[in-house]
């Protein structure tokens, strides 16, 4: 396909019209045509200013230049000919009312009538009425007081954003989304020093978006702008006016109808950009404003990049009249500017390199930077990253990429050495070379294909000719040198990007560390909170305990009084006895009721106590309290989880670092290999060019002898081109380690055409001293890099270990603290069962025996309340061999022994000493057989069922066949006996306490 056929039918516009100056600016020279780089139309040109619109510029005229100036070097060194979406754009001006309006306006300008003599407002209103004006939004970022502007064509929705700020990227993108805009270009009026642009990140988020900045900014972007360039969006466009002075790359962007000017930092409202850093020069700024901005119509609205006083807009006329600096003469102006004594912008040290960096299309948007986190990295992290990169990389970043190796027709005349592509011998090429292979037309030279192209036949013949020594196609030494310089540059690029990636990873590490710190703080806060609630709970519990004890005393008092009255009755006159007995009966019932209430209360209390050990459930009141505790514990667990997640992330980062290191090694190896090959080719060229009397060409190509000169070179090569690995980093260059590799840096398949390398006896490439010096120069930074990477890796490892240690210490601290709380808290100390206030009752056998109530037994009373109930006898009567069961202490009123109990919440199995006490009517359990530390109680009235577990807990129980269950009204206890006999005894013992049992 003809290259020109791919180009759009371009439209040409009046380039630049400023009241009466239009003819000076408006031109139709090819140079200016080439400068007019459009977005979608691609090209606009100047033309007859009397017509406003011209016929299309011949596409072919532009095509070559376009393609030559547009190849881009991808971060991996691949050329990406970014052919813009050169859509066919027909000149449709005049087809709509709005366009007609615009046209009339233009014609007015061209005819020397100043249509803006009327107020801008009126003009804008007219434009709005006709729907001709662009959609416009002024957005503000408060930290740096930056204005971002959004302009869009209301019909096509194509949009341009000016000076977007990183901090407000989400807001801006949201608005763009909401308005349904198709953001085509993000342009920066200059390389800002006070904030980081969001351009790079926007490109990452919006497919097809391209960055633009002045070519004098020092930053690279997809589009590098200069005077007269236009940025179209729909039927509108902005024109670039270079306005240096604040920085070299400052531009003012003027809307097509000159109704708006985006002046960046050049002209501020009643002020102007400072000139004390970033190539600032007051004289230049003065000239820029006066020549490029003050020449705009008075009504032209001035939209600056900043305002620190809340002003939003001004006009050219106003500024020309009232600007306190720019109304002065040059000398005064310079004086003012040199004495502003402003503080440097807070972020200058990071913003400048960041902006130089983030505008680059390869960074943060290319496939080298893989990290999925890029999008979500916080600003602080980016700042960190940039500060890391700043010092080391600034110089390289300032250097825009310039590789112009676009394919040229193969059969070009010999004198045309513009394309070094043809001279590369066949073999492993760096990817970018492969991407532009072949005799394709410039347009189809591989830019649209992602596949690596193979050598074409003509390439092969070219190589063959080269190898046969054809002087026609030998590359010039300077071209080779140039290519080597480019490889060095690529190396530098690679270095920068890898360092960036490392910095990214380090940044992530730092973010994780900060997160860890936050989690730790939260954990501490939670612990404090837990401590407070613990104290509160403690106080409450103490009070409750006191009340409980008082109630216990009262119940005892009631009991004593009943007993005394009971003793007195027999000594009373016969006539009163019945009455007294009745009274006594009532008092006893009251006493029983009080006792039951007390016991319930005590039960709840003890249950709550034991819940501290997380083994028991609680009553409703306790549940409320525990809920808070549970939440705290849950949060603590959450924090611990977060800590371990952070730790995993650190490990992951470490892995990524290693991978980066490996990738770097691979890339460096490939680059070194290519360089060696080039060195070799260079050497060949030298040899081909000079008459080699002592080493005839034919001989050299067929069966080359080692001539003395070569021998020297070989020796040199062995010293100078010595693999770096030999010099200290053996693993970095595995392919050059072996003596064979030393002797033959050319890969074997490069010799597969059957020809030995000219100038080598065994494939050794030759180095001139100059080349070898270049080689070592190029190699040294790589060594440093590797050492640096390794150092960082070590640091990361140390950091990781530190984090791990910290985590472990925290965990231990937590555990200890918790243990300490358990030990110190009186709440966790079980109440003494044999407390002085509540002495263990006397053996009830005697008491009950002497009681007049012991018989007749009311049928409704549970079995164990029967006065003559003998537990041991009962168990024996059931056929159990009690005497043979040594691990049980069974008396007439008590049964005690070890059982293993499953925890209520934390399902751990713990051995406890259980005591079934018919007098206290409770089954209590203690930590040990001395019965000093009560862990919990099950009151008889709570027991509902006792049954064998039937191996339900088989997977967890220490002895599933010996596991049985005690069901209370609100909980299920799993207990394990030490043997089958004791299990059966225990079950029969406990079942006596059930109401169910009392019915039989
Ligand atoms: N206080 C601000 C810095 C303000 C500042 O220096 N603004 C620049 C434009 S951004 S580089 C400027 O040119 N100002 C001119 C003026 O007269 O204010 C900060 O700390 O960031």
TrEMBL record:
GO terms for molecular function: metal ion binding; sulfur dioxygenase activity. Residues 444-456 have a biased composition (Low complexity). Residues 533-549, 624-636, 835-845 have a biased composition (Basic and acidic residues). Its EC number is 1.13.11.18. The keyword Acetylation applies. Residues 753-768 have a biased composition (Polar residues). GO terms for biological process: glutathione metabolic process. Residues 440-463, 526-549, 608-647, 722-768, 816-856 are annotated as: Disordered. PROSITE patterns: PH_DOMAIN (PS50003). Residues 786-813 form a coiled coil. GO terms for cellular component: mitochondrion. Residues 892-995 form the PH domain. Keywords: Acetylation, Coiled coil, Dioxygenase, Iron, Metal-binding, Mitochondrion, Oxidoreductase, Transit peptide. The keyword Iron applies. Its cofactor is Fe(2+). Its main location: mitochondrion. It catalyses: S-sulfanylglutathione + O2 + H2O = sulfite + glutathione + 2 H(+). CDD domains: POD-like_MBL-fold. Pfam families: Lactamase_B, PH. It comes from the Eukaryota. It is found in: Mitochondrion. Residues 610-623 have a biased composition (Acidic residues). Homodimer. Monomer. Interacts with TST. May interact with RELA. Belongs to the metallo-beta-lactamase superfamily. Glyoxalase II family. This is Persulfide dioxygenase ETHE1, mitochondrial.
């Amino acid at each position: 396909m003809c290259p020109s056929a791919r180009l759009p039918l371009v439209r040409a516009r009046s380039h630049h019209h400023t009241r009466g100056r239009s003819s000076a600016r408006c031109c139709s020279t090819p140079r200016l045509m080439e400068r007019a780089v459009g977005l979608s139309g691609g090209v606009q040109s100047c033309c007859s200013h009397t017509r406003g619109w011209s016929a299309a510029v011949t596409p072919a005229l532009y095509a070559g230049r376009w393609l030559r100036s547009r190849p881009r070097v991808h971060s991996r060194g691949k050329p990406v000919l970014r052919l813009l979406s050169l859509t066919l754009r027909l000149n449709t001006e005049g087809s709509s009312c709005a366009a007609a309006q615009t046209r009339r306006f233009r014609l007015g300008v061209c005819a020397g009538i100043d249509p803006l003599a009327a107020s801008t407002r009126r003009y804008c209103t007219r434009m709005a009425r006709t729907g001709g004006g662009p959609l416009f939004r002024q957005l503000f970022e408060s930290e740096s007081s930056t204005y971002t502007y959004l302009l869009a064509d209301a019909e096509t929705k194509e949009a341009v954003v000016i000076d977007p700020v990183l901090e407000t990227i989400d807001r801006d993108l949201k608005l763009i989304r909401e308005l349904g805009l198709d953001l085509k270009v993000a342009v920066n009026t200059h390389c800002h020093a006070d904030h980081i642009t969001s351009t790079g990140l926007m490109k990452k988020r919006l497919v097809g978006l391209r960055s633009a900045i002045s070519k004098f900014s020092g930053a690279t972007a997809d589009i590098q702008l200069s005077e007269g360039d236009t940025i179209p969006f729909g039927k509108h466009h902005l024109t670039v006016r270079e306005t240096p002075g604040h920085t070299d790359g400052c531009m003012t962007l003027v809307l097509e109808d000159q109704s708006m000017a985006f002046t960046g930092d050049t002209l501020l409202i009643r002020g102007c950009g400072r000139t004390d850093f970033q190539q600032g020069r007051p004289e230049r700024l003065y000239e820029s404003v006066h020549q490029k901005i003050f020449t705009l119509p008075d009504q032209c609205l001035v939209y600056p990049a900043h305002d620190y006083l809340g002003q939003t807009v001004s006009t050219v006329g106003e500024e020309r009249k009232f600007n306190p600096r720019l109304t002065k003469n040059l000398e005064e102006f310079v004086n003012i500017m040199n004495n502003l004594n402003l503080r440097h912008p807070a972020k200058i040290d990071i913003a400048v390199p960041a902006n130089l960096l983030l505008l680059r299309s390869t960074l943060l948007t290319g496939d080298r930077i893989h990290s999925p986190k890029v999008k979500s990295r916080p600003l602080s992290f980016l700042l960190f990253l940039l500060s890391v990169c700043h010092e080391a990389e600034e110089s390289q970043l300032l250097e825009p990429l310039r590789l112009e190796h676009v394919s040229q027709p193969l059969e070009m005349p010999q004198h045309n050495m513009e394309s070094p592509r043809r001279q590369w011998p066949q073999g492993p090429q760096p990817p970018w070379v492969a991407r532009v292979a072949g005799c394709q037309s410039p347009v189809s030279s591989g830019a649209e294909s992602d596949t690596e192209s193979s050598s074409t036949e003509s390439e092969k013949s070219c190589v063959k000719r080269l190898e046969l020594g054809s002087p026609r196609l030998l590359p010039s030494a300077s071209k080779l040198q140039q290519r080597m310089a480019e490889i060095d540059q690529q190396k530098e690029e690679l270095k920068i990007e890898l360092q960036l990636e490392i910095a990214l990873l380090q940044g992530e590490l730092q973010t994780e560390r900060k997160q860890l710190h936050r989690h730790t703080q939260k954990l501490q806060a939670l612990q404090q909170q837990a401590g407070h609630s613990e104290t509160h709970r403690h106080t409450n519990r103490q009070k409750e305990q006191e009340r409980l004890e008082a109630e216990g005393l009262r119940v005892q008092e009631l009991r004593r009084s009943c007993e005394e009255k009971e003793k007195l009755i027999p000594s009373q006159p016969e006539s009163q006895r019945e009455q007294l007995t009745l009274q006594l009966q009532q008092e006893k019932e009251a006493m029983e009721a009080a006792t039951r209430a007390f016991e319930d209360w005590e039960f709840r209390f003890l249950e709550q106590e034991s819940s501290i050990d997380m083994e028991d459930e609680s009553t409703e009141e306790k549940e409320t309290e525990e809920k808070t505790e549970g939440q705290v514990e849950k949060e603590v667990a959450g924090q611990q989880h977060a800590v371990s997640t952070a730790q995993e992330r650190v490990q992951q980062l470490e892995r990524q670092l290693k991978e980066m290191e490996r990738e770097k090694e691979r890339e460096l190896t490939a680059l070194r290999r290519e360089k060696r090959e080039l060195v070799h080719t260079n050497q060949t060229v030298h040899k081909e060019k000079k008459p080699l009397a002592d080493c005839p060409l034919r001989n050299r190509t067929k069966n080359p002898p080692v001539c003395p000169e070569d021998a020297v070179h070989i020796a040199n090569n062995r010293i100078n081109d010595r693999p770096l690995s030999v010099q200290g980093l053996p693993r970095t260059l595995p392919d050059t380690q072996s003596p064979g590799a030393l002797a033959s840096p050319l890969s074997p398949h490069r010799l597969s055409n059957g020809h030995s390398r000219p100038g080598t006896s065994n494939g050794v490439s030759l180095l001139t001293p100059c080349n070898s010096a270049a080689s070592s120069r190029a190699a040294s930074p790589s060594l440093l890099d590797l050492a640096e990477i390794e150092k960082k890796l070590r640091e990361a490892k140390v950091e990781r270990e530190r984090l791990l240690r910290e985590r472990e210490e925290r965990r231990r601290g937590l555990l200890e603290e918790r243990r300490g709380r358990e030990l110190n808290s009186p709440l966790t100390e079980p109440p003494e069962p044999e407390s002085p206030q509540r002495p263990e009752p006397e053996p009830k056998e005697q008491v009950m025996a002497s009681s007049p109530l012991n018989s007749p037994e009311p049928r409704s009373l549970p079995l164990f309340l029967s006065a003559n109930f003998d537990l041991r006898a009962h168990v024996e009567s059931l056929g159990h061999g009690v005497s043979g069961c040594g691990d049980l202490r069974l008396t007439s009123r008590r049964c005690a022994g070890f059982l293993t109990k499953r925890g209520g919440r934390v399902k751990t199995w713990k051995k406890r000493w259980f005591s079934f006490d018919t007098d206290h009517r409770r089954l209590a359990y203690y930590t040990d057989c001395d019965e000093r530390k009560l862990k919990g109680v099950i009151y008889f009235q709570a027991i509902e069922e006792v049954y064998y577990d039937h191996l339900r807990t088989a997977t967890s129980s220490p002895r599933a066949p010996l596991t049985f269950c005690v069901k209370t009204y609100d909980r299920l206890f799993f207990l394990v006996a030490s043997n089958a006999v004791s299990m059966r005894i225990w079950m029969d013992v406990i079942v006596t306490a059930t109401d169910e049992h009392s019915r039989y």
